[in-house]
Amino acid sequence: MVQVGTPPVWSRRRVEPAEAPDRTPWRTDHPLLGCDYNPEQWPREVWQEDVRLMREVGVELVAVNVFGWAEIQPAPERFDFGRLDEVLDLLHEHGIGVNLGTGTASPPPWLTTAYPQVLPVAEDGTTRWPGGRQAWCPSSPVFRELSLELVERVASRYGRHPALRLWHVSNELGGHNALCYCDASAEAFRRWLRERYRDIEAVNQAWGTSFWSQRYGSFDEILPPRLTLSTPNPGQALDFHRFSSEELLAQHQAEAAVVRAHSPLPVTTNLMVTAHQRDMDYWDWAPHLDVIANDHYLDHRLADPAAELAFCADLTRGLAQGRPWILMEHATGAVNWQPVNIAKQPGELLRGSVAHLARGADALCFFQWRASRQGAEKFHSAMLPHAGTDSATWRETIELGTILRSLPDLAGTQVSAQVALVFSYENWWAADAPNRPSELVVHLEQVHQAYAALRAAGVGVDVVRPGAALEGYRVVVVPHLYLVRDSEAAVVADFVADGGHALVTFFSGIVDEDDRVRPGGYPGAFRDLLGVTVEEVHPLAEGVVLPLEGTSGGTVRRWTERVRLDGARAHRRLGAGPLAGHPAVTVHEHGTGRAWYAAADLDPDALRALVEEVLAGAGVDPEPGAGPLVEVVRRRSVPAGSGPDFLFVLNHGPDPVLVPARGTEVCTGQDVDPTLEVPAGAVRIVRLAAEEQS
Ligand code: GLA
Q1: What is the pTM of this model?
Q2: Ligand 1 pocket by Cβ (under 6 Å)
Q3: Does residue 451 lie within any of the structural domains?
Q4: Cβ neighbours of residue 668 under 8 Å, at least 6 residues apart?
Q5: What is the pLDDT of residues 359-400, one digit of tens each?
Q6: Helix (H) and strand (E) counts for the chain?
Q7: Per-residue pLDDT tens over the stretch 661-692
Q8: How many A from CA of 332 to the centre of ligand 1?
Q9: Domain's final residue, options 561, 589, 618
Q10: Atom of ligand 1 lying closest to residue 67 CA
């Protein structure tokens, strides 16, 4: 039997949120429309037209000074706030609120020329040069000092400006510079490790350095995981991710502290809850933000972009602990950073925006107000495109503004769900590390598959971090949770023992927080709960598809396992291949609840059928009319009955659909009773009649 090492002294560092008793919480009494505004790219005459058109469309929250550093500090000893003063005053005159950037997102050329040591260094030791954006190392003491000096100037000048509604720290922290391997980062990484482990032997244990002669004699010998000849130590790589996320959070915290000393207004930063960002552990970040704000862009390369959007919105709401949040950026049309930038179809702008609204956003903002004429983003869509106001984009944006103005009582209502889905950034880092059993299995795809099946089944989902309390849910779904702490797995087991239903998917529970395999068979931490032991995993070669046994059909691809039943029963079995007849799906009665295990990568229809069975067994009813192409989501008043509830229906399909509802439809003003018709591609929002509220 393999001896599991003693756990490190340090278990999990949690930075407590700053005490901020006198802060103004972010709140809006009606949903807001907003945008990023870069007036520094335009002559003053254009500003007048900008504010006029902003009022026309209903823009009420404008992010400025996001990339303002070079403008407001053109030289080391020179600050020039003239234009920014004018812009804030102009917006205020027109009743438009400001979401003020601290301006630190991108250092100006004078700074990187004078202090080249702030430039980030890639894994292979090469410098990332200025000329793009965000060319700074998160651990650079010089960058920290100069950026805070700027924030001090900005916050002291504008902290009580009447236009100010919100503070916007930096921009998409870690978007380009999350992992830096320079000498300053190496030093900071060693400091971080000393604080975490105290003793070098604890590092050796956590990283398993008796392997490949990697044992460290002192902290001074440790480097960031720079490019190696063979696979680097996985424990080192995992800790480097944790460290890097905390370094960027520390930059946020440092800027926020300066701002808070000058201003009572809420402070946030725009997170990147998308398929493209996995470097920051936002579960750790969220408690430090006064309101959660997210940037989301549709990616047409994904299998199901609308489902990915819904997943990100539900995860953002999870980070917000269910409270209303801000969609800080999304696009009216195409972006500019995909190989082919697909324009939105008629109706898609509205569907995309309203999807975020339905899932808890109280403000919808776009990047950006006016399409740039120059620079790398000149072909990125905007509210005001190059074509001007005589454009489909402008007309659809006007329509969105009108819808938001018809929903004054929506703000503050919340979404609730009976199903929780467990998602973890540090698991993502560990699960996708090199030298795993199959590179065809990609963690986020597994999460998306599980989420898409739930969405297609028509149920609402809350995304939660491992270890989160599960009271109040009926079902918990645990997709591909390779790395999990014993205490976190125990929360799922206790939930089931007390009557909950769980669906765990393959290669979960395998390692502890140090990426150390649990001996005795997979799925390690979930073995007893699931009543199975997996002797060996059997990934399938690319293109291999095996049928499931039985008449209900279904196939598996990419992954199978040699499963031994230890109390569970086989629900579906493999119909062919070397493991023909072995369980592919199992079910185990545990305590007063039920634990399901998908031991293979089921095709989407088979997974959806399984999910529907799990939900039915747990008594979770789908929203009537909901399906893969039709989203039906409710926002309820809090406390219940204190105001109207709203039913959102988004028809992504090619045909009109009917959904049962009674109340008043917001986009058309029509009374609805007993069914709502939603045309192909349209959105409808019903302010529900009192007796329809649940
Ligand atoms: C990010 C940034 C914006 C802009 C958009 C383009 O979200 O924050 O400045 O670059 O991407 O999609």
Answers
A1: 0.96
A2: 171-172, 295, 297, 329, 335, 367, 377, 380
A3: yes
A4: 684
A5: 999 999 999 999 999 999 999 999 999 999 999 999 999 999
A6: 17, 28
A7: 999 999 999 999 999 999 999 999 999 998 88
A8: 13
A9: 618
A10: 9
